[in-house]
Design a protein that fits this description.
- By secondary structure, this protein is of the alpha/beta class.
- Helix content is 43%, strand content 12%.
- Helix 4 runs parallel beside helix 12.
- It is globular, with a radius of gyration of 24 Å.
- The N and C termini lie far apart (59 Å).
Length: 469
């Protein structure tokens, strides 16, 4: 492809993306496709000879696009958001064009130093303690795995890296924690049997007294507590574990404290939500995702550590071909996590922070919280529905309950309601279980979502409720 053709299609693709962003609402949020529908329209083998880009782009629109779930749709209320924004997309375009591999300072000095600066901006924005150092991981799941491996090495004086496991280490997390904690603990070698699920209270937050009890029982058995994974904003209900009470427990027992704030951490940019960071001075590592609620397209996960030397000692390895003369005075982020090769993720984050500014991001987060409070109010005023969890951020958990039904019947009824809502294609909601009860989640956080979209969602819920009841 010569530069003229690149320009021609580049302009065309940008035009297409601009029209898509402006008109995404015209699409169904998710298409009624069946497994195999996309594959059946694709050839079994790669072409022997190159094809015109015009044909490839046409197939993108006719075959691929119908199988895309539109995460940037204003009626997107599923999971948590995975936002993008025009400045972030443009920065990603530049990143792809530069094609830089940013594993160490020498391979792209600007990438390393921009990452260092933007992470420091984020640290100040959300109120993490002075001195915590940040690095961009791909996802919070990876960051949690990094924390678990680091905790493992700290607990064993870095002997596990050399000799493998010689004692049983224990991980503690809430029964409401994300599945990535259990997955990370398996990958890090702790073993599924050595994960302790600590009970949560009626607000779905970890009970510190139960954590302390579990740690003491394990120590009496001769086991070694290594890591506590707390959550600020659980996936099911955005429950907030009390760091100011969990932290002293971890400090007393010399256990690494990691905090997963993947979605809700962004809310800490609001002074009125800074309470979620109470006790953060006890934290050893902390992660939140700008690619969820901070307009930075996937993937971009901000991971902070109190002691970067412990992190680097866990992951560093020094083959001759990667040594440079400036290693002692720069951050070589290949030693701050699992990946050797690294993308230039800091560029899109920098574009977003500069384009919107702190006040612009605050305004967006406040609006999403306001819309969630609005939906909460409508639910509370209708005696056929009940809230199932506190609404501290922009997630609303509810269920339909129109009278004297058993829990089994209510679970089946709400499952049916969710299926009916989603089958319209107008929106997409997801479900969870809280204390054994089937719950419908409405996650408000898409950049383009306005009050009218939330009102229409509520009208749709009411209409589908009439159909099933």
């Amino acid at each position: 492809m010569d530069s003229d053709e690149f320009k021609r299609y580049g302009y065309r693709f940008v035009d297409w993306l601009a029209e898509y962003m402006d008109g995404v609402e015209k699409y169904p949020v998710h298409q009624p496709v069946e497994p195999g529908d996309i594959k059946d329209n694709l050839p079994e083998n790669a072409p022997l000879k190159g094809e015109p880009l015009e044909d490839v782009f046409q197939d993108f629109q006719e075959i691929i696009l119908p199988g895309i779930t539109h995460w940037q749709h204003p009626f997107w209320f599923a999971y948590f958001p995975a936002n993008n924004s025009p400045p972030s997309v443009l920065a990603e375009f530049l990143t792809a064009g530069l094609g830089a591999q940013c594993m160490i300072w020498k391979t792209s000095p600007a990438a390393e130093e921009l990452e260092e600066v933007t992470l420091e901006w984020l640290r100040k924005m959300i109120g993490l303690p002075e001195g915590m150092a940040g690095v961009i991981q791909d996802t919070a799941s990876t960051a949690t795995l990094v924390a678990l491996v680091t905790a493992r090495e700290k607990a064993t004086s870095f002997q596990t890296n050399d000799k493998g496991f010689t004692e049983t280490l224990i991980v503690y997390t809430s029964e409401e924690a994300h599945s990535s904690v259990a997955k990370g603990a398996k990958i890090a070698g702790y073993g599924r049997e050595n994960i302790r699920l600590i009970p949560a209270d009626d607000k779905f937050a970890m009970i510190p007294e139960e954590l302390d009890r579990a740690i003491r029982e394990d120590k009496e058995k001769g086991l070694k507590p290594a890591c506590v994974c707390a959550t600020v904003g659980t996936t099911s209900s955005t429950g907030v574990d009390p760091l100011d009470r969990i932290g002293p427990v971890c400090q007393e027992h010399d256990v690494w404290l990691h905090v997963d704030a993947a979605f809700a951490g962004t809310a800490a940019i609001l002074p009125e939500k800074r309470w979620i960071m109470n006790g953060v001075e006890y934290v050893d590592s902390f992660v939140f995702n700008p690619h969820k609620w901070m307009l930075t397209n996937f993937d971009c996960s901000a991971y902070f550590v109190k002691d970067p030397d412990v992190l680097q000692r866990t992951f560093d390895i020094h083959p001759e071909y990667l040594k440079t003369g400036v290693d002692a005075v720069v951050h070589n982020y290949r030693d701050w996590g699992i990946q050797l090769g690294r993308r230039f993720r800091a560029l899109k984050l920098w574009f977003v922070l500069r384009y919107y500014g702190v006040e612009g991001l605050q305004a967006m987060v406040r609006e999403h919280i306001r819309l969630a409070d609005l939906l909460k109010g409508w639910i509370e005023k209708d005696d056929r529905f009940e809230l199932m969890a506190p609404v501290d951020f922009s997630l609303v958990c509810f269920r339909f309950n129109d009278g004297d039904r058993s829990e089994e019947e209510l679970n089946a009824l709400n499952k049916k309601l969710l299926e009916c809502i989603n089958s319209t294609g107008k929106t997409l909601l997801t479900q969870t279980t809280l204390k054994g009860k089937y719950v419908i989640r409405v996650s408000i956080g898409q950049r383009t979502t306005q009050e009218r979209h939330v009102r229409e969602l509520w009208e749709l819920i009411i209409a589908e409720t009439k159909e099933i009841s």
